[in-house]
Amino acid sequence: MTDITLKSPFLREAKARGMIFQCTDFEALDELMLAGPITAYIGFDPTADSLHVGNAMSIMMLRLLQKHGHNPIALIGGGTAKIGDPSFRDEARSLMTDETITHNLAGLRASLGQFLNFDDDKCRLVNNADWLDKLSYIGLLQDVGVQFSVSRMLSFESVKQRLDREQGLTFLEFNYSILQAFDFRELHRRHGAILQMGGSDQWGNIVSGIDLARRTDGARLFGLTTPLVTTSSGAKMGKSANGAVWVRKERRPVFDYWQFWRNTEDADVSRFLKMFTDLPVEECERLGALAGAEINEAKKILATEATAICHGREAAEEAAETARKVFEQGSVQAALPEVTLSSGLPAEGMPAFKLFAEAGLAASGGEARRLIRGGGARLNDVVIKDENQIITSADLTDGTLKLSSGKKKHILVRVG
């Protein structure tokens, strides 16, 4: 971002935490935020029934707004979900049914409620289906379509990339930017929103909304984007070997969520502490500067603080204690994530590869076989050497089996 001296507490802290990538007008926005509370929003489309760590930067921006006394709006895309955001995607999203959207919206509300305090009347949860579902096509074309230049829309990098691929861009998806611009203007009219925030890939969509409100309402609106977050090794934030790192415990156990943050690369500790915890910036820098074995203690703090924001302090500390027992004491009785075998354990037992697949530690029997052949599978802390090893009730401890995939993935399988 531009090297500029910021005065408003929100922008100063967001900059210090490395959470700002680009802004349409830093100086004017800074003055407005310094003068008093503003209303700002970020949109979240219900592509799944849970948010994931890839959404964490946006959520933390809303938390920071709320902390500094501004008015955050979490906009859930019940309307735009029927199109799907094409920004920087290789191909079109599959269209979702109304039933799927309704289901996902409920999960999205629950996810956002884990991070934001909606009991505060300054913080709103809004669904764009409230206005988009009521639009008439001709009315939209006359009101909004006339304000958009096709040549300018084609110049957006996200659009150009899709057009350069064989998949192309459907007319349905091409309308997404128009509807997102409509959202910005509508939130300005209904709630006085003057700032839209989002990931750096949303820049073109945000600017479209600013232009629309200026042309039709004479309003001055602003855009602020966050950087694309990747790990030091280049991996996309929010992904793990087992897929997306979901924030709802129904999708990813609290212990696994804690463990994801504990596995942060050394070079990312300071940066992630600033971005994804509420710890003071100076403390984040101190912890991130630790070296050797001490950096592992900083990672535990990162894991506990990030998990506390998502799942609550008690659950975070319980996860930290579970990790201590598992990794430092080797305790099988620690409160590891549990799964129950739906079919039970047959009297004649079950091959190890099949058990790992059914327990969810492998996506298929073939993957489980490869895990075992590579020496990465353990039963009750003992390496399984034969993929066809029969697991029986004799291996149970208090009705459970401890299964481990590698050094960091552990679950308890309850039988009967």
Automatic annotation (TrEMBL):
List positions binding L-tyrosine.
Answer: Y41, Y176, Q180
Q: Which GO terms describe its biological process?
A: tyrosyl-tRNA aminoacylation
Question: Where primarily located?
Answer: cytoplasm
Q: Where does ATP bind?
A: K239
**Where's the motif 'KMSKS' region?**
236-240
Q: Provide the catalytic activity annotation.
A: tRNA(Tyr) + L-tyrosine + ATP = L-tyrosyl-tRNA(Tyr) + AMP + diphosphate + H(+)
The name under which this protein is listed is Tyrosine--tRNA ligase
Species whose genome carries this gene: Bombella intestini
